[in-house]
Model the fold of this input.
Amino acid sequence: MLIIGIAGGTGSGKTTVVNKIINSLPSGEVAVMPQDSYYKDLSHIPPQDRSKINFDEPNAIEWTLLVKHLEALKRGETIAMPTYSYLTCTRQPETVDVTPSDVVIVEGILVLTDPVIRNMLDIKVFVDADPDDRLIRVIARDCIERGRTPEIVINRYQEILKPMHCQYIEPSKRYADLIVPQGGSNTVAINLLTDYIESRLHRSQSRGILSKEVSQ
Done:
């Protein structure tokens, strides 16, 4: 199993990079584990107070559960990945079954900030993008998908997203094996990454076949 971490600022194009990798590999070979699925449950906090929570710092994520699930997948076990609602800021009762795959992608803004997760990653990727481009994407996404007004999104960007990006996310770039500038539009970098993944998979499969032949 090849575990890939894809990090980068909010609105940098991480999801686009992930989708292009998935579409370039055979169906069923890639499992995606969004960091956002592992936000801590805030159902015990009054709804009016949940919007004040900082979701862009490492403490917002239940890293221990994510580590537990990655370890289970490596053992060949199926996991029940949690789901999270951005509208209510609570973990949902529904889960998503994730089966062991040749490639597991862990994607999220803070993926490279946690040392335990970093040590589990075979490939560490940081998707980089211009701050203005990221802000435009965040406004469009949050207004459409999360029911926020442009004013709320811009205020949140200035008060939380930008400071947290500078404090946690941007510094995590130094841990990356590959930096993808220009976000999801960098076809050359994405193709290089995909080719590398395919070569690693091919080597692993070849070793597996060889081991079976030797044991027989």
User: Anything to note?
Assistant: The first strand starts at residue 2 and ends at 8.
